[in-house]
Amino acid sequence: MSVRELVVLGTASQVPTRHRNHNGYVLLWDGQGIMFDPGEGTQRQMLRAGVAAHDLHRICVTHFHGDHSLGLAGVIQRINLDRVPHPVTAHYPASGQHFFDRLRYATAYRETVRLGEVPVAEDGPLATTASYTLDAMRLSHPVESFGYRVTEPDGRRMLPERLAAHGITGPDVGRLQKEGRLGGVTLDEVSEVRRGQRFAFVMDTRLCDGVHALAEGCDMLVIESTFLDEDERLATDHGHLTAGQAARVAIDAGVRHLVLTHFSQRYPDPTAYEQQARAAGFDGELTVARDLLRVPLPKRT
């Protein structure tokens, strides 16, 4: 049975706290793992969360501020130490190539794994697999930053009552799905489109077109909400979002499950984020992320 869930490794912004590690997230998707923004301490958080280096197939870095990337050195070395048997691909802003190189070769170690590099220079697709496509979209932050979106291809949902009406049963159903036609019956006549699931990861940014494009129609949106609404001016000045802004993005985009994260150390009470997101009008599933939390993607409708 396929597993699709978000594993939260860390939820702090620039300064970690006693209860919040620096950033780190892993999306488990049908046997593949996509790591986002490994900050300091990510290796240890992986151990605590039950995520192994063997689970990782991609590493996606939104930008090269330390709380989103300083864990890269350790994660890359761990992938090699554990001799992960499959290739791993890293995505990151192309303008930060020198930062990536420094982190990849921060210390001496033996390379045993083929680590591919696919830097991001513009909006658009980065990879296509059998179960998803990965796209990047530019955000608005003092350093170049990109958000990421994972999209499952649309499929078909068979409709039993229509199959029965045409007398199609057993192996003939599979044959119809494979060939698109059985006798005089087409696949469209006995099925409907099953929209693929959609996941977006939006970190440090002001409101911009990229935020809205990434969030559009998502089943799960993981989005920074560094500041509370009373500090909106401060958020904009520093290239960040507030809880209310993030919630309004989710409302406009029709997001089903909103995950708020990347919290400033200035706010000790995490319930304020939920209160402000609800006050903004978001009435879908809402998670205020905490370290080591596992959040399953919503079931298909």
In short:
It is built from ten helices and 18 strands. The chain has 301 residues and is of the alpha/beta class.
Q: Assign a percent range to the helix content.
A: 25-40%
Kindly report the spatial arrangement of strands forming the biggest sheet: 6-5-4-3-2-1-18
Rg calc: 21 Å
Rounded mean pLDDT score:
95
**Poorly predicted regions:** none
The largest sheet is: 7 strands, mixed
Q: Could you tell me how far the N terminus lies from the C terminus, measured between alpha carbons in angstroms? A: 18 Å
Secondary structure tally: strands: 18
By secondary-structure content and strand pairing, the structural class works out as alpha/beta
Shape: globular
Portion in strands: 25-35%
What is the tally of helical segments? 10
Task: Give the ordered list of helices and strands.
Answer: EEEHEHHEHEEEEEHHEEEEHEHHEHEE
Outline the fold blueprint:
Blueprint: E1 4-10, E2 24-29, E3 32-36, H1 42-49, E4 58-60, H2 66-69, H3 72-81, E5 88-91, H4 97-104, E6 115-117, E7 124-128, E8 133-138, E9 146-151, E10 155-158, H5 160-165, H6 171-179, E11 181-182, E12 185-186, E13 191-194, E14 198-202, H7 209-215, E15 220-224, H8 232-238, H9 243-253, E16 257-261, H10 271-279, E17 285-288, E18 294-296
Parallel strand pairs: 3-4, 4-5, 5-6, 14-15, 15-16, 16-17
Antiparallel strand pairs: 1-2, 1-18, 2-3, 7-8, 8-9, 9-14, 10-13, 11-12
Helix pairs in contact: 7-9, 9-10
